[in-house]
Amino acid sequence: MSDSSLIMASRPSIAVRLGREIARGGEGTIHELPEYPESLAKLYNRSLGSEGAAKLRAMIGLPSDRVPGSTAWPSDLLVSRGGAILGLVMPRIRGRHDLHNFFVGTSRRATFPLADYRMLVATAANLARAVAAVHTAGHVLGDLNERCAMVGSDATVKLIDCDSYQVEVGGALYMCDVGTPMYQPPELQQVGTFRGLHRTRNYDGFGLAVLIFRLLFFGRHPFAGRPLRGEAPELPDVIRALQFAWDGASGLDRPQDALQLADVGLKAASYFRRALGPDGMEKGRPTANAWAVTLDELQGAMRRCGLNTTHWHLGDRCPICEIEYRTGITFFVGRPTPSALVYNPERDANAFWTAIESEAPPPPRGAEPIPSSFGRSITCKPYPKPRSLGWIGKLLQNIGLLKPSDRGERARRAADLVIALRRYEDLVKVWRAHDPVTTYNTHRTELTNSRDRLAALFEQRRQAIAAAQLRLGLRRFLAAHGIGQAGIKGVGRSLVATLTAHGVGTAADVSAANLDVIRGIGPKRRAALISWRDDIAKRYRPSGISLTLDALTIQQIDSQHHSEIMRLLDRLRGGAASLRTLSDQERKKTNVEMSELLAAARAVAQAEADLNAPTEA
Questions:
Q1: What is the DSSP string of 262-311?
Q2: Do 54 and 157 share a domain, yes or no?
Q3: What tens digit of pLDDT does each residue of 179-197 get?
Q4: pLDDT tens digits, residue range 181-239?
Q5: For the chain, how many structural domains are there in total?
Q6: What is the CATH number of the domain that holds 244?
Q7: Is 503 in a helix, a strand, or coil?
Q8: pTM value surpassing 0.90
Q9: Do 66 and 180 fall into the same domain?
Q10: Is residue 358 part of a domain?
């Protein structure tokens, strides 16, 4: 297509000259416009139908209050001299990069070297504001995805590809006919085509939540979890089944080295559950405006990490440090390298143990209550007064021919005493068989063993760091001795120049591997150089000053036992809470059993008193 065949619809007398192509996609190509440097031209690969043409004309004809300022809204049409729409003109966005560059650490560090975690939160908030502006103007994005926006170094967001939006103009609804499956809600995962489908702001709410999640969780998709068994299913299937991996979905678990949902705060976590779960379909997902407010609150509540200035977090612990410690991943540029700033789990272990020690065990069980202790508080029930038998009846009772009238009552009371005693004795056995303090101490011992194992690992860590510091000190000592000033026998000026050219300029550089690759070093000179280095090494005396190691060295040391350390640390992290729960349970158990014992002992005392009661006067 020649430039002369293109004109702007608003300027039919002026031909448009295309500049260089700067991007290419499925729909068409993006070109510079030399005469209009603040604008770009988008040329479609195929001709638009009548509906597509009407949609573009409607978008460009909108009044300013219906054009969201957060977007690169089309400003003009590119048409042929015959009037066919060939493309559009849109604002040129400078100094910004595609949103997806924020997701992955390597591209984020290259594109946004000054970014930190709070900037990710700010970008998410600004993305929500930009989407809210589109919704306020009466439109729906429809195809929210990682390439729908561009971000500046100040975290501000501009939405692009606006010609795909669902737009309502003058009562006419122009649809969004495209969609990226991983950002479409479960309601739309089984539709055959997006063409002609009426989109809603609630559908946008799903895609927006996914984008915000990926920004806050370092590019991870909320439905891309770790399968508990078998292979991971396809992402559309997981979305359709609403298996939000961070919310304990059936069959999926949160990836091991990822932030937890609680790390972004209770309100944002509840928004993710609502947007990505069944409630979002039935009751509506959080609006873009609501997301913006919540993310602003999150940004204001975060504190800067004391170990790494690019980390921001809620609460006392820095989860980003913990992930970097476990994996060796660096999320942001400018990670401090001194060992003092490297995450040290020993600090957390001490804090967790302090919390464990503050927990009090349940009180020991005392002696069980005995029936005789209720003697004065028991009122016996006298036997009923026997009816008068006369002198003949008394005579018959005396010779055994007539039984006493209360004999049956005495037998019943004796049976009641047997039952009460049996109940009481059974409860006494239960009371004596269980010791709450022993149960508590057993769990406390398990935690103590974890602490002792951690202490052993930390001691190994300290020794390894000390050894590394010793090696660093020795290397610095050797590096202070240059070969040129050493006067080594057989090593003249010419050989010194050769050694220096190969990077062997000090005693620290002398090694068999380095010398073997240099021509002109025979066995005698090789031995002389190594002997000279060894003599210097023997003179090294550590200064007693701890040398600062780089982060990589610390990570290499920690990698030997980091999985076991983190497992034991997790156990101690929940130790205080588990002891508190156990102690509370034991107290309740003791109170219940004591209440039962008191009642049983009183029942025995009552039965004994009733059995031995006098007859009514």
A1: GGG-HHHHHHHHHHHSHHHHHH-PPPHHHHHHHHHHHHHH-EE-SS-TT-
A2: no
A3: 999 999 999 998 889 999 9
A4: 999 999 999 888 999 999 999 999 999 999 999 999 988 889 888 777 766 677 888 89
A5: 4
A6: 1.10.510.10
A7: coil
A8: no
A9: no
A10: no
